[in-house]
Amino acid sequence: MFDTETGLPVSMSKAKNAVTWLAFVLAYIDMKWPHDAAKTRDSLTDALATVTPALVDENAPGKPDDLVLREALRQYVLPPAGRQLPRPADIAAAVTWLERHSLPVADLAKVRNVRLGLDALTLRLDGGAAAATTIARKRSVFYNVLQYAVDLEELPSNPIDKVKAWKPPKVREVVDRRVVVNPAQARELLAAVTYAGRLDRGRHLRAFFAALYFAGLRPAEALGLRMQDCHLPETGWGRLVLAKSKPQANKRWSDSGEAHDDRSLKHRAQDEGRPVPIPPELVAILREHIEEFGTHDDGRLFRTTRGGVISIGTYCEAWQKARTLALTPEQVVSPLAARPYDLRHAAVSLWLNSGVAAPEVAERAGHGVDVLLKVYAKCIDGGVEISNRKIDHALETFS
C-alpha cells in the first residue's frame, strides 16, 4: 500500500512522519515485520526493547520501573499484534510515559544521545554485564534502524559511526576446536543416544543426530527433512536435497502461531534447494530409521509421537544424557560436543581436514567460502596428535 499524498509505501511514510524515536521504531518494525522470520522478529524486538527506554528525556520525572518498560515494549508496543491487547494499568502508564518523553528522531544525530543507547546494550536488566554476542546482535539492530533514518533523510549520517570512544566487546567468530569430536567419538555418542530418551525417543533421535554429523545439517534443517528429500540407495553414497528449515521460536513471533514455521534455507533464495551427498553409513541409518518409525503424513522423518516438530529442549536433553554415557568424566565437563550443533562443526571440520576443496565444503554446508574458512576451518579432536606424529616422522627422517 502507498500513501496517497507522498507516493511512498505506507510504512515508509509513517517513518518519515515520525517525530519521536518510539514512533520511528514502530514504523520501522511495521516495515520489517511481514518479511522477517520469527527468530528475527524476536531478536528485533528484544534489541529495541533494550535501547528505546534509554533514548528518552534524561530529566523526565516519574520514569517507570525498567522491568515494566521492557514488558510494555516487548509484549504490547513493538509486536504489531500486541498493540491491540488490553493493557494493565502499569503497562498503560509506562507506554504513556514513553510516548511523552521519547527523544525526537533528530536528536539522535547527537553522539551523546547515541551513547545512551549503546551503553544500555551492555547491561542486563539485573545490572550485570551482557554477553559479547548479545551486545553485538543488539548493536546491529540499533545500527540498522538508524541507517534507515539516514536512508529516509531524517538523519544526515549514521551517528554510531561517529562514536569513537565506545567499542563493542570482541565476539568469538571461530569455532572452538575443543567442541569438535572425531569420528570414533561421534559414533559412541550416536550409540549412547539410543539409551538416552524415554521409551523409543532415543532411538528415534539417533538418525536426527546422525544427519547433523554425517551430512553437516543444521538442527532446523534436519527437523524439516522429508522422505521426498532423500535418495537412499541400497549401496553406496546417497543424497539429500534440502528444501525447508524448521527453526524454533516463541509462538508470539511466528505467523502461524506455532513454535516452528516453515522457512527457506539459510543463505538461499525462496524454494532454492541444497544438495548434500551423504556417506553409506548415514544412508543405512536413515533407511533403518524409516523402516522402524515410518514418516509423517507430510513426509517428515523426525517428529513427536503426535506428529509435531521436536523441540530444542527435547533433543538437547537427550543429547546431554548421551554425553554422560559416551564420554569420560573429564570430557563431560569439557566443551566437547556440548551442544548438538557441535556435530555440524565436527562434520565441516572433518571434510576440510580430509582435503575436500573449500568451495565444495561450503556448498554442502550451505555457507559462503569466506565464512567457511573464517569460522569452520578447525582441526578435529585428536588432530594435534596426528600433526605431532607427522612432525616426529619428518624429524626422524632428516636426523
TrEMBL record:
Keyword Kinase tagged: no
Keywords, alphabetical: DNA recombination
Domain of life assignment: Bacteria
Skewed-composition ranges (Basic and acidic residues): 252-273
Region (Disordered): 248-273
Coiled-coil region list: none
Segments forming domain Tyr recombinase: 176-393
Identification of the protein by name: Tyrosine-type recombinase/integrase
Annotated source species: Sphaerimonospora cavernae
